[in-house]
Fold this sequence. Notes:
The chain is α/β, with parallel strands linked by helices. It is about 40% helix and about 15% strand. It has helices spanning about 20-30, 45-55, 65-80, 100-110, 130-145, 160-165, 175-185, 205, 215-230, and strands at about 10-15, 35-40, 55-60, 85-90, 115-120, 160, 190-195. A seven-stranded mixed beta sheet has the order 3-2-1-4-6-5-7, sandwiched between helices. Helix 5 packs across helix 7 (about 175-185) and helix 5 (about 130-145) runs parallel beside helix 9 (about 215-230).
Amino acid sequence: MTKTDINVVIVIPAFNEAKVIAKTIKDTIKCGYSNVLVIDDGSADDTAKKATDAGAMVVSHKINRGKGAATKTGIETAKLLAADIVVTLDGDGQHCPSDIQNLISPIAEGHCDVVLGTRLKKKKHQMPMTKVASNYVANFVTWSFFGLWVSDSQSGFRAYSRSALDCISTSADAYDYESEIIREIHHHRLVYKEVPISVQYTDYSMSKPHRQDMANGMKTLYKIFWKAISF
Length: 231
């Protein structure tokens, strides 16, 4: 399979992102990725319309189910679109679509099954220290219960081969979905690679009520704990 033969589908879970979703989509398309799939997770604003007008395919949840649920819907839809590689990124503009190429190349070249974007291996656009600390705790908990240490277990910017997605199985609907993926990588012995990514924190992304803040982080850790002991 040559690079031009690879069908890459970009999956963007979005909840009330009408202010920024169009820019995220347009920036992604400008980078050469025309198959952009937005999962509108029960938004109360016009996220779906903005996404459609910007050139994305849109699938909508009637109610807000959570980032994990929206991502899973996107991945299953991408499979129906015959995706060879699926890339997931956040809809709030914090990820740089120019990094997509670095995520998909190791998979396209046959070196690995999954690529994890990591915010902690690139000095530019460093994470706030509060996020670094909470992320390290999440990394530790993920490693403790799921047996695999990664530098950024909560990053939503990732790439998957079709074969990897066919064996990954998750049940989480919220932010603990990201950690469940780490569990599945370890459980199925998938070959993975961590790739540095840039991140852009704005007043908008830091003020969202549904962001992964300390309170939501504690809920995530609680869910990881209970699912880990019952897995």
